[in-house]
From TrEMBL:
Organism ancestry: Bacteria, Pseudomonadati, Pseudomonadota, Gammaproteobacteria, Salinisphaerales
Domain of life: Bacteria
CDD domains: R_hydratase_like (cd03441)
Segments forming domain MaoC-like: 27-130
PANTHER family attached to this UniProt entry: BETA-METHYLMALYL-COA DEHYDRATASE, MONOAMINE OXIDASE-RELATED
SUPFAM superfamilies in the cross-refs: Thioesterase/thiol ester dehydrase-isomerase (SSF54637)
Organism: Salinisphaera orenii MK-B5
Record's protein name: MaoC family dehydratase
Amino acid sequence: MTRSPDPDFDPAGHDTTPQRWFEDFRIGERYPLPGRTVTEAHFAAFQTLSGDNHPIHYDRPFCRAHGHPDLLAHGLQVLCFTAAGAGTFPAEVGEALIAFLEQSSRFLAPVYPGDTLYPALTVAELVPQRRTGVLVMTSTVHNRDGLRVLDGRQRYLLRRRPPA
């Protein structure tokens, strides 16, 4: 039996998130990202990916000798949890996204295996340009005790709404 495609189905109409352009964003909009508990498997995977073999991240006796109760997460490992792709922002900007321009971060407190982290992005600034705009987001990561362990900024270049 040969089956034909359904003429009423259009994959382009299957988007679950409406398209947003630079003008559609407002300062203060918040994008919580999924919380997750950091495990030793994350440490091992990051070591493999980054090639960072400093003992502060992988050697418990070294960590204890340097005042840490356990392995210390690499700052870039914590930063990775602020990737906008983990939330709805990339689906919203879709065709509007031109580039991820830059990011900066400050690492404020240690992160150890077993810590649960809660990252979020918040629209902080909108810089209109002629045909584009720069959307600036603050990035934060808190642990389960409410302590901020990271803060930073991310900048995205977006297209403005096309003329009707």
